[in-house]
Amino acid sequence: MLAHARRRVAAHRHTSSSITRWIRLAAVAALASAVEACTPTPPVPLAGPDPADPRTRVPAVAYRSAVGPYESRRPVEPQPWQDQNDRLSPAPKP
After folding, report:
1. Helix (H), strand (E) counts: the chain
2. CA diameter of the chain
3. Domain span including residue 10
4. pLDDT tens across 83-93, in order?
5. Is residue 73 part of a domain?
6. Could you tell me if residue 56 is left (phi over 0), alpha (psi between -120 and 50 degrees) or otherwise beta?
7. pLDDT per residue over 16-69, tens digit each?
8. Is there a domain that residue 18 lies in?
9. pTM for this structure?
10. Is residue 89 part of a domain?
11. Sign of CA dihedral 65, 66, 70, 74
């Protein structure tokens, strides 16, 4: 009978220490959340002037065509390779 009572007390101690651990963990988590909520947010880094300011100067808008510099790449008749080679080769050294 005494062994049975000891087991009950030991089980109760284990359960109460487990509950105490959870309460402590919850208290630490609540404290950490409260401290985090009280800290100010860091300022947002800006790369330039404030975009919400209507007096801010901005560069002028210019239109550039996407196909403006296009050159046709249709097949052409081959040219003599010797002429092309002479045009592209560096000048001879004196």
Report:
1. 2, 0
2. 117
3. 1-39
4. 888 888 888 88
5. no
6. beta
7. 677 888 899 999 999 998 888 887 877 777 677 877 888 988 888 999 888 888
8. yes
9. 0.31
10. no
11. negative
